[in-house]
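Progress against Task 2.4 (sequence-to-structure conversion) is shown through the following example record, which the project officer requested during the mid-term review.
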Amino acid sequence: MFDPEFASPSDWATCYRDLGLQVVPAATPSKAAAQWKRPLVEWVPLQNELAPDFTFLRWYGPSGEHVRRHNMGLITGKCSDRVFVVDLDTQKNVGAQAWWDDVINSAQRAGDLETAEQVTGGGGRQLLFRAPEGWTAPTCKSPIGVDIRGQGGFAVLPPSMHESGRRYEWVKGFAPWETDIADAPIWLCDKIDLLVKEYGSGGSSAPSGVKTDSPGMTHSAFGQIIDGREEYATRFVWGRVVDLWRDSPIPPTGDQMASEMRDAFSMYERAVKSRLVDPGVPNHVLLEREGRGISMFKHKWDHAISQWDGKVSEHGQKEPPRKHEAQNPAPLSQPVEGNIKFNPETGEIFRELPPDGVYEVLNVKEIKTLPDPQMLIEGMIIDRGFGLTFGAPGSTKTFFDLDISLSIAAGLSHFWGRKIHKTGPVIYISSEGVSDMKFRIMAWEQKSGINTDETPFFLIKQTINFMLASDVERLVKTVAHVSVKAGNPVLVVVDTVSRVLPGADENLQKDMTLFIGACDAVRETFDTTVMGVHHTSRGGNLRGSTVFDGAADFLFLIEREEGTMNGSLTAKKIKAAEDGWTQQFDIKKTPVGDIAGHESLTLHPLAMQKEVEKQVNKWPEKDILNKVLNAMRAAWDSGKPWSPHAQSRKQGRYAQLHMYDFGINAKTADNILDKWSMNGVISMEIRDKNTKVQGYKVTGRID
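Structure tokens generated for the chain above:
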């Protein structure tokens, strides 16, 4: 049913996805972007399986980021059910036509090669095949104009625009929705293998002067290279320059070359660490002092560029255009094993490895002697654990976390009716709403009657990137600095998760694993609890990768009905304690006590839901019930009748929510509404025949 004449970019992308192809948004040709044939998303994590639905919808859904972008492309290989592309530049290279003629002549019958085929914007041909089981299509760029886009490759797809001003188009009758993508016959696979053998698939050859064997390397606690940095820089630079040649054999201009070199050095600098310890001095400055910084890097870069038409060209033709290790140098996600330790005298962060490389092994008797899990707050938060509070914007989740933090820092014995087992310093990381923080603290003081001036509560207001090892190390040093003065923190709060992950994809396990690893670095170093503040998805669930659910020791959902001054706390997950419970709370505007008359919100917990349920059969007094009926009449008269359906919350018509304002809990409200309906006190009627709005109308009275 797909009609390309009237299809939107979203329709095109959905069609490809329905065919099992990994389609991703791609760049648009421009004068500023010489190499535009590339995805606009991080595609390394997408090479082995089809992107999840929520990722695709974020790109091409009704309000997707790329819903109006015509340029898109295919990631070939395993993620697209083994589909690969044979790219033929027959329009400008006779070698490509000769190779393809030989392929055709080798075919036993023409039908063997009938498959989906497109004409590129540049006039070339691209044919799609499916690799047979047991054979992996290589990724190869040959000098005769025949390229194979195999595992991890990328090909631009219709209706994308080419730099020539022409669009990519499927050959009439051979679009993938018109004909099947053919299984590559064995003889074609053999031809491709011979092509790779003749023109090189990368092999292990390397230009003279560049070693291929890497020496043993040591790493920092976060996986950064400490020993072997010069060797790593040599391989890094060479791989980067060769990849530039593969993108285009025409060398970049002076400004473009300088920009490429700066970008490459930035990646190198994040992957290595200086041996020098000088608090406050950036890593790149310390590297330069050691002779492992920008000067060394530029020397190696210039040397590689000088061989552009020689060794670089030779190496570029022999190596497959796969993603070089130099383009993915972030070892943060794979730190060396062991416990993180911090030396306050030298400022060094390191991992204490087990003796002789052997981990401690416990038998059953020894397991039974392990200490019981300790709680920071009884029935809520595990001591030295990791967890999240999450909710929609405006749900007061920050006020909840601040309430916990100040209660612990002020040495209170209880929080919301639960015993606090451990009090002490709290470090709160927030670059959002910092100017309002003082009013929130002052309002909390008014509510609790406690002056917090001397409490060990500390705020870090700078933006921290938890994706960078250098930022995480600086954070650990900052916490250590506070610990020297006030003692190890009992709690560290990260508000919000999205603020400390700039540019990360919250749906990718790889990116979120880095965040959790950074939290673990702080947690393990100082034996503290780390709590993050996060958002909900459109469906009301915890936003992002499921890695959060698995790694968290506790998860709390904060909800607040729009336009109301009450909310609820739901324990979605608590290890070693009962979860699934809900506690309601009121939200009040509290004067902060200053001359200007500022106010801030404070939270006031109500009885636990299970305690409230004990009062289910205890109806309110008659005067309260009459007030409820009067409010119900007024709602009907205003054209917004109360409704028993939860979907009416957004319209402000949910009956339970209004009855809660009169101190009536949900179950009691249901009983009252049922009883009134049965006895003719209220009835469900249509209030507006045009809009079909339906709700409660008061039709009787109570005795």
